[in-house]
């Protein structure tokens, strides 16, 4: 299954027996608004997943602002959503695929292969005049023992080793945050030393449609597995999906910049 599907594809397959559609709308500035938007109208049959309640784990001293869920939490999410081993899962949002890509990544981390993001999100669905409903779907919980794929992620110490080895480290945040000129969220401005800046939103157009894999992806040396981070491990997943579309297997630093700066002796760079 492809990592991205079109509105046309989803419309044609919406009532397939093994299809699971997940609404991931979420606004960091207004956490309750995503679920409210879902209740006001979603793709028929879609279930809801909340970034902070479902797609993130418990926050601690380290681990960043949106730690990955542990295996038990992820197991519960997969089964609550009714996902079975042969399910095709389509995730969407209205935030340039950031939350949908997070779920896409987490499902891969849980070992589920057949998952994709809706190209253009719910705005593209609405734009085609397709049906929207507000009623909550009836979901039969599944039983799906998952197995986490630790090869998809790296630790802070892995990032430090990558710095020594000269491996590519990608900062997915906006250029002004990467440079340290602006920092609206985290306590320290700047970026991880040796990181290059590939802004995650550059993967999409203003209408939230995905571009062809960026030419810069071709700059990665053949066989290398770049490390991707952002502020808290969410928008980095957009870059990971884009890299995968280009045939490059990238790894996520889950805690990302917010984890890196939680260690006082870790250096940051400003431009």
Task: Give me some keywords for this one.
271 residues, alpha/beta, Oxidized Rhodanese, domain 1, 2 domains, thiosulfate-cyanide sulfurtransferase activity, transferase, repeat
Provide a short characterization of the protein structure:
The protein has 271 residues and is α/β, with parallel strands linked by helices. The chain folds into 2 domains: 145 residues, Oxidized Rhodanese, domain 1 (3-Layer(aba) Sandwich), CATH 3.40.250.10; 108 residues, Rhodanese-like domain (Oxidized Rhodanese, domain 1, 3-Layer(aba) Sandwich), CATH 3.40.250. The protein is built from 9 helices and 9 strands.
Describe the overall structure:
With 271 residues, the protein is of the alpha/beta class. The protein folds into 2 domains: 4-148, Oxidized Rhodanese, domain 1 (3-Layer(aba) Sandwich); 153-260, Rhodanese-like domain (Oxidized Rhodanese, domain 1, 3-Layer(aba) Sandwich), CATH 3.40.250.10. The chain has helices at 7-13, 33-40, 71-80, 98-109, 121-127, 156-165, 175-179, 236-245, 256-260, and strands at residues 4-5, 19-23, 47-48, 88-92, 115-118, 169-171, 196-197, 227-229, 251-252. The longest helix is centred in the middle third of the chain and has 12 residues, at 98-109. The relative contact order is 0.16. The mean pLDDT is 95. Keywords: Repeat, Transferase. This is Sulfurtransferase.
């Amino acid at each position: 299954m492809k990592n991205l599907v079109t509105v046309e594809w989803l419309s044609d397959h919406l009532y397939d027996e093994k299809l699971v559609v997940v609404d991931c709308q979420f606004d960091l500035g207004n956490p309750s608004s995503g679920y409210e938007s879902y209740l006001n109208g979603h793709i028929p049959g879609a279930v809801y997943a909340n970034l902070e309640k479902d797609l993130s784990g418990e926050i601690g001293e380290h681990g960043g602002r949106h730690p990955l869920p542990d295996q038990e939490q992820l197991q519960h999410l997969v089964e609550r959503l009714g996902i079975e081993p042969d399910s095709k899962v389509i995730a969407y949002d209205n935030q340039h695929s950031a939350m949908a890509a997070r779920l896409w990544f987490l499902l891969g981390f849980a070992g589920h292969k057949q998952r994709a993001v809706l190209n253009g999100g719910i705005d593209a669905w609405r734009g085609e005049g397709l049906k929207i409903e507000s009623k909550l779907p009836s979901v039969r919980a599944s039983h799906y023992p998952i197995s986490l794929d630790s090869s998809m992620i790296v630790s802070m110490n892995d990032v430090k080793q990558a710095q020594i080895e000269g491996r590519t480290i990608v900062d997915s945040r906006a250029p002004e945050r990467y440079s340290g000129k602006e920092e609206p969220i985290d306590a320290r401005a700047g970026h991880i030393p040796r990181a290059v800046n590939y802004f995650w939103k550059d993967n999409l157009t203003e209408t939230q449609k995905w571009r062809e894999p960026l030419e810069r992806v071709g700059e990665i040396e053949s066989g290398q597995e770049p490390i991707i981070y952002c502020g808290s491990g969410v928008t980095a997943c957009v870059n990971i999906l884009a890299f995968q579309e280009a045939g490059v297997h990238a790894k996520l630093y889950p805690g990302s910049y917010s984890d890196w700066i939680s260690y006082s002796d870790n250096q940051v760079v400003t431009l």
